[in-house]
Design brief:
The complex is a heterodimer. Chain A is an alpha+beta fold. In chain A, 16% of the residues lie in helices and 49% in strands. The chains are: A alpha+beta, B alpha+beta.
């Protein structure tokens, strides 16, 4: 009877295993979530983020590095899991297109493999919870400085205000993600374009879209050892201030928006769960003189469970905490990454532990999100210590102040150690500034040449890039451009409509190198042609 | 006709196996055509997409090959003839063999299950309380007794259910320019605005008697159709409420199944509703116990990868080309099994296999299919709009590995611009003007892709039309609009604590959405 029961149990077990496995111990496990984290690009904010309308002037736009990224290369999973199974591995193969792992092994091998995948999945499922709150305030509250944690008084001052917008992101370690919070979206007749492919040039309207809100692209990376985490961000904000009806020909109206736009790129290294203003911007000409403050807070970091098998551990160190960012080439947008440094870090791993520790079954390879190492747990700990030397999570806050008529402009942005930053806070106004006459094709007699209204954006505001060289005795290179518009505007009535040109104000640029002293330093004093004297002060403070 | 079959008939004519003649019997394996008309969405016509005119998959028919394989097993008989997918015989012995081998398959062809859906209005907080999936008897009785907004049922022909129970009015929805000649001309586009219910489902009977259904259920309700003047001509701007659910589900015959329920009334103002599907009858499962070889059509779809995504326009059953490749590859991997029916023909586009084998051999195929079927899962999307308003649920019965999408929207066509079109070079200098229309949607649209490891990829938007500002132009009145929009997107595991899809300002208050797995 006992033997019969045992046989029945065996038969049941065999039947159960046959349910999800093909004969010969072959089975499939979905691993698509370990291969890649997809990040859908999120449409930006501001006027015409899709670029449907011809952009003659400043439009908030960013380079478009892809969101998401590769976590583990299929090869990395195959090698690590083959090593884990040892002689038990008849075959281990990752089909990256279908996102499945096909393996053939014993029942015990399958258990080990699934335990390892479950651990890896638990590690990668942990998210950094980042919260951004954007405030529009009459003045920057005391104690609010970009890159420096809010003190109690500043926190209370902000808590009493209603945020203009709020964004929450749950980020995989080292993987960039985009998000957007919109106040509203408006469509209008933004322009006309001439089509002169036929016998007669014709004029057709172009619909424009304005998206008012806050856009962010962010990645958070944990240091190889320790509690610090590094945020790398791009921020965009756009506030619609109003629209005017363009005076183009009767029956062909134009709607011309005026808006304020922020674009900023920076970084920050967190030691705890402090609330930190990433960006502070105030200009009397932008957003009605209100200050835009974007505050970030990061929930405590997720804990990593211990690996199930210390003999084979696959670990991914996010690049964000090890990278050094650099200013872009002249033809690129956004901040670049020092690719040579990545190579140096990868090369240095060989010497960080003895050469005998590296075999055919252990490796270190670079993906776009991190440095993936397959080693024993003991060696992993040594490597993490070695990599920690490259971690750069100490932060500074740069505050640039322009003093002079018609008021004080303040721009603040946070940065990790010697990383460069960029910030622009500007008011843009679309105006009908000209008419372009278009003729029909050659040899065709035409009666009504097309008249293409030229709609351009006039800019008032400041754009600055800062590049710091060292942290000790910080040398900061400052590139500052300021365009201004005067109070008045010129108008000319033509048969095609009323053309408008805002009075240009002083326009100037500064290139300077400043040595930080822990106190505000005058970077430049200048008197622009036709303008009042301006004093540019840079105050770079290291976060405690 | 296959060679072996001809040989059998030839031998029979030489005088072998004489037997008394009987009334002729016909075994007809002809299948209804699998061709379908292109899918046209109900309600407000959307932008025309390339998918609209798509001709659905044409099946390579494996029936002829099956008959070739079967011919080898038939006793010789001069009265047995074959024409296409039909066999006629006067021989009782041949008829007996054919009956035994083909009867289960003929029942499969003949007795398709009746598939029906009902869209039922709900009361109070029923949308939050009703259990998703197979309904308990009491709840099923309550919903059955209630007058439905729309209902439709039919027996699918050839596995496809393409059913429209609609009413329509013809209106001038657009103008098109024809500039191919010397003189460009303008033509009115008259379209039938259909409202009612439409189903486009692929229905496959599984070995255990359950029915695997994938496809689209759409419902539209007409609203006022505004008539405006465009360049002196009439132009109709229709509006409608639309509900569209696309997904794949396994249904048990005789048990109404709740596929989706919602009281999420944002902007679309549909109120609370439940979408219930039911299958009835159909052929019984393949006879067990017999040792002879029988024919059977196996549905492999539950085991094949599916990423037909539910586009909000066009045909949701269209499988993108890379996905079709993956499906084919997966179907071919079935051949790696041992002990399969000796005759097994894969019909790859449809994900079916026609087989001739013993019950044990058929069971190998069925076990392979069953191993890929994941247990369904109830997802609850909480949508909150406004300051402090209680969240409203949108609940869906999801099958892991099968994408699912829901659209609940109020749609409205707006005149947003125009286009003046000129003739080609050398043509006359006349031009024509045609309208540019935009489809404004207010409501919620969500695409939920739950994989077998429990990871969910969600994408969609919550949108509301705040104002429409008329603007006088030379051809009439165009509209500039202001809308609120909250993009919804997330990727992660919703099982512990839910997955936040988005949060943002909504007028004076806030809107947010969260997806959770119901226990």
């Amino acid at each position: 009877m006992i033997r019969l029961s045992a046989l029945a149990a065996l038969a049941l077990a065999a039947a159960a295993s046959a349910q999800d496995a093909d004969p010969g111990g072959r089975f499939e496990v979905p691993v698509s979530d370990l291969l890649r984290r997809s990040g859908e690009p999120v449409q930006g904010v501001g006027f015409d983020p899709d670029g449907a309308v011809r952009a003659r002037g400043a439009v908030l736009s960013f380079g478009d590095p892809p969101s998401g990224g590769e976590l583990y290369h299929p090869y990395a999973l195959e090698v690590a899991l083959t090593r884990l199974l040892g002689f038990d591995a008849a075959s281990v193969e990752v089909d990256s297109e279908r996102g499945v792992l096909r393996a053939q092994t014993s029942a015990g091998g399958r258990q080990r493999l699934e335990r390892q995948l479950a651990w890896l999945r638990a590690v990668e499922a942990a998210r950094h919870a980042l919260r951004l709150e954007a405030y529009l305030l009459p003045e920057v509250p005391a104690g609010v400085r970009a890159g420096l944690a809010l003190d109690d008084a500043a926190r209370e001052a902000l808590a009493a205000e209603r945020p203009w917008l709020r964004l929450e992101l749950a980020l995989t370690d080292g993987v960039a993600q985009e998000a957007c919070a919109l106040v509203r979206e408006r469509t209008f007749l933004a322009d006309y374009e001439v089509n002169q492919t036929g016998a007669v040039p014709v004029l057709n309207p172009v619909q424009g879209v304005f998206r008012e809100g806050l856009w962010v692209r962010a990645a958070i990376s944990r240091e190889p050892q320790g509690e610090r985490r590094v945020l790398v961000y791009e921020l965009g904000a756009a506030l619609l201030e109003g629209t005017t009806a363009g005076g183009y020909r009767a029956g062909l109206p134009l709607t011309l928006p005026t808006w304020s736009a922020l674009d900023a790129r920076g970084s920050f290294g967190w030691a705890g769960a402090a609330q930190v203003p990433l960006v502070v911007a105030q200009d009397p000409a932008c957003a009605g003189g209100r200050a835009l403050v974007v505050v970030a807070s990061l929930a405590p970091g997720p804990a990593c469970p211990p690996p199930p098998d210390p003999a084979v551990v696959l670990r991914r160190h996010a690049w964000g905490a090890l990278d050094r960012r650099c200013l872009p080439d002249y033809h690129a947008e956004g901040l670049g990454v020092d690719a040579e440094r990545r190579t140096r870090i990868l090369d240095a791993l060989d010497g960080a532990v003895g050469a005998e520790r590296w075999s055919d079954e252990s490796f270190a390879e670079s993906t776009d999100t991190g440095l993936v190492v397959c080693q024993t747990q003991a060696v992993q700990e040594q490597l993490a210590r070695a990599l920690q030397r490259y971690a750069r999570s100490r932060s500074v806050g740069h505050t640039l102040v322009l003093e002079g008529a018609p008021g004080t402009v303040r721009l603040g942005v946070s940065a990790v150690a010697a990383d460069p930053v960029e910030i622009g806070w500007r008011r843009l106004r679309r105006v009908l500034e000209g008419i372009e006459r278009s003729a029909g094709p050659v040899s065709v007699r035409f009666e009504d040449p097309g008249e293409d209204p030229v709609v351009g954006a006039r800019v008032h505001g400041t754009r600055v890039s800062l590049s710091a060289h060292t942290l000790t005795g910080l040398q900061t290179e400052l590139g500052l451009e300021r365009e201004t518009l005067g109070e008045g505007e010129r108008q000319r009535t033509t048969p095609w409509g009323t053309l408008t040109w805002p009075e240009p104000g002083p326009r100037w640029a500064v290139r300077a190198r400043v040595r930080a002293t822990g106190a505000p330093v005058v970077a430049a004093e200048l008197r622009p042609l036709g303008g009042e004297p301006v004093r540019v002060t840079l105050d770079t403070q290291e976060a405690p | 006709m296959g060679g072996r079959f001809a040989a059998v008939v030839l031998c029979a004519t030489l005088g072998w196996a004489q037997e008394p003649a009987a009334p002729p019997r016909v075994f007809d394996l002809e299948r209804p055509t699998s061709r379908l008309p292109p899918y046209l969405p109900l309600g407000v016509p959307g932008p025309r997409s390339a998918e609209e005119g798509w001709d659905p998959e044409r099946q390579p028919d494996a029936t002829a090959d099956l008959l070739d394989a079967l011919a080898a097993e038939l006793p010789a008989d001069p009265s047995t003839r074959r024409a296409g997918a039909r066999i006629v015989t006067s021989s009782p012995r041949v008829a007996q063999v054919l009956e035994r081998a083909l009867e289960p398959y003929l029942r499969q062809l003949r007795d398709a299950p009746r598939v029906g859906v009902r869209l039922v209005p709900l009361r109070g907080d029923e949308a939050a309380a009703l259990p998703l999936g197979p309904l308990p008897e009491q709840a099923a009785r309550v919903l059955a007794a209630r007058e439905a907004w729309a209902q439709a049922s039919a027996r699918p022909r050839g596995g496809w259910l393409h059913l429209r129970a609609t009413q329509g009015v013809e209106v001038v929805v657009d103008y098109e320019a024809n500039a191919t000649g010397a003189l460009p001309v303008r033509e009115a586009v008259v379209s039938r605005i259909e409202t009612g219910v439409a189903l486009r489902l692929r229905v496959e009977r599984l070995a255990d008697g359950a029915v695997y259904v994938r496809g689209l259920v759409e419902w539209a309700r007409p609203l006022a159709c505004e008539r405006v003047r465009f360049d002196g001509q009439p132009l109709d701007l229709p509006s409608a409420d639309r509900l569209r659910v696309v997904g794949a589900w396994t249904l048990s015959p005789g048990r109404p199944t709740l596929l989706a329920a919602s009281s999420c009334a944002t902007a679309a103002e549909l109120g609370a509703w439940a979408l219930v599907a039911e299958v009835e009858g159909g052929s019984p499962t393949r006879p067990a116990g017999a040792t002879q070889r029988t024919a059977w059509r196996h549905a492999l779809s539950p085991r094949l990868p599916a990423d037909y995504t539910a586009a909000f326009t066009g045909d949701p059953l269209r499988t993108p080309k890379p996905a079709a490749e993956r499906r084919r590859e997966r179907a071919r991997s079935l051949r790696e099994l041992d002990g399969l029916p000796p005759y097994l023909e894969l019909e790859e586009p449809s994900g079916q296999a026609l087989a001739l084998g013993t019950p044990a051999e058929h069971e190998r195929v069925e076990a392979w299919v069953a191993a890929g079927a994941a247990a369904p899962c109830a997802l609850r999307v909480q949508v909150a709009v406004g300051d402090g308003a209680a969240p409203r649920p949108l609940r869906v019965w999801a099958t892991p590995g099968r994408p699912l999408s829901v659209l609940v929207a109020r749609e409205r066509t707006l005149l947003v611009g125009w286009e003046r079109i000129n003739g080609g070079c050398g043509a006359a200098t006349d031009t024509v003007i045609v309208p540019r229309l935009a489809l404004e949607r207010a409501g919620v649209a969500l695409s939920l892709d739950l994989d077998r490891s429990g990871q969910l990829r969600a994408q969609g938007a919550l949108q509301e039309l705040v104002s429409v500002r008329p603007l006088e132009v030379e051809v009439g009145t165009v509209s500039e609009v202001e809308r609120r929009r909250l993009d919804l997107a997330a990727e992660g595991d919703p099982r512990s604590g839910g997955l936040r899809l988005g949060q943002g300002p909504w007028g004076a208050g806030e809107a947010w959405a969260l997806v959770e797995v119901e226990r």
